[in-house]
Amino acid sequence: MQRIVFNKLKENPKMFEYLKLNSNWYKELNRSSTNYKKFENAMKDLYKLRTTDKISEAIDNIDLINSVLNVLK
């Protein structure tokens, strides 16, 4: 694995944890550093770190607050 890729992984604890849990990525990252983007996308999918996931979560929270306020009326 290239040193740059390894440093990027160590900077982000979630990425490092995902790598420990999914050790098959070691092989992919050792083969080519271009697989880093695929690794990052897979990690974001699992931990729901995409922008669309954050927006959906915010909308769900607003709906929950709205329904609680409606019940209290």
H-E string = HHHHH
Overall 3D form: rod-shaped
User: What is the total tally of β strands?
Assistant: 0
Radius of gyration: 18 Å
Mean pLDDT: 93
Q: Which ranges are low-confidence, i.e. pLDDT below 50, for 5 or more consecutive residues?
A: none
Which class of secondary structure composition applies to the elements? mainly alpha
Instruction: Provide the β-strand percentage band.
Output: under 5%
Describe the largest sheet: none
Amount of helix: over 70%
How large is the count of helical segments?
5
- N-to-C span: 59 Å
Labels describing this entry:
mainly alpha; 73 residues
Write the layout of secondary structure elements.
Elements: H1 3-11, H2 13-21, H3 24-31, H4 36-47, H5 51-72
Provide an overview of this structure.
It is a single chain. Helices cover 82% and strands 0% of the residues. With 73 residues, it is mostly helical. It is rod-shaped and about 60 Å long. It starts with a helix and ends with a helix. The mean pLDDT is 93.
Summarize, please.
With 73 residues, this protein is mostly helical. The protein has helices spanning 3-11, 13-21, 24-31, 36-47, 51-72. The termini are far apart.
